[in-house]
Design a protein that fits this description.
The chain is mainly alpha-helical. The chain contains 6 helices and no strands. It is elongated, with a radius of gyration of 29 Å.
Length: 139
């Protein structure tokens, strides 16, 4: 037969000081405390375990996917066979990523968006210069 709470309290006094019990009210109070772990969820509904204000947040703009995609498209647009499509995609995504970074400053990604626009523009200029060079040499 399970012991009653009164019996347990008597036994606790016999063996040393009485420990404070956790009440349900304590659990509710802890939920209101600002947790340093972000309470965001990914696409699957699982919580993201990133700390707010960490170095990784400033280096990788995980909240601004367009800026990150612009950056990668800009880098890969420097490959000669990919310059035509990826350079345009990098510029468009870079402009959209800049707009999102200005509208939502916590999403970061301004540097990645600018890098995507610059690399896409350089790729277009190099592609046009290469085309002109081969047109002149082919004569």
């Amino acid at each position: 037969m399970p012991k009653k709470d009164e019996d347990r309290d008597d036994e606790a006094e016999d063996y040393g000081p009485k420990r404070a019990r956790r009440r349900r009210d304590d659990d509710d109070a802890e939920d209101e405390i600002d947790d340093p772990i972000a309470e965001e969820e990914d696409d699957d509904g699982r919580p993201l375990r990133r700390r707010r204000g960490s170095v990784v947040d400033s280096i990788i703009p995980y909240k601004n996917g367009m800026a990150l995609a612009a950056y990668y498209c800009g880098i890969f647009s420097l490959i000669p066979c990919l310059w035509g499509t990826l350079s345009i995609v990098a510029i468009v995504l870079g402009i959209l990523g800049l707009g999102k970074a200005k509208k939502h400053p916590e999403s970061k990604g301004t540097g990645h968006a600018i890098a995507g626009i610059v690399l896409g523009s350089i790729s277009i200029i190099l592609g046009i210069a290469t085309g002109i060079y081969f047109a002149i040499v082919a004569r």
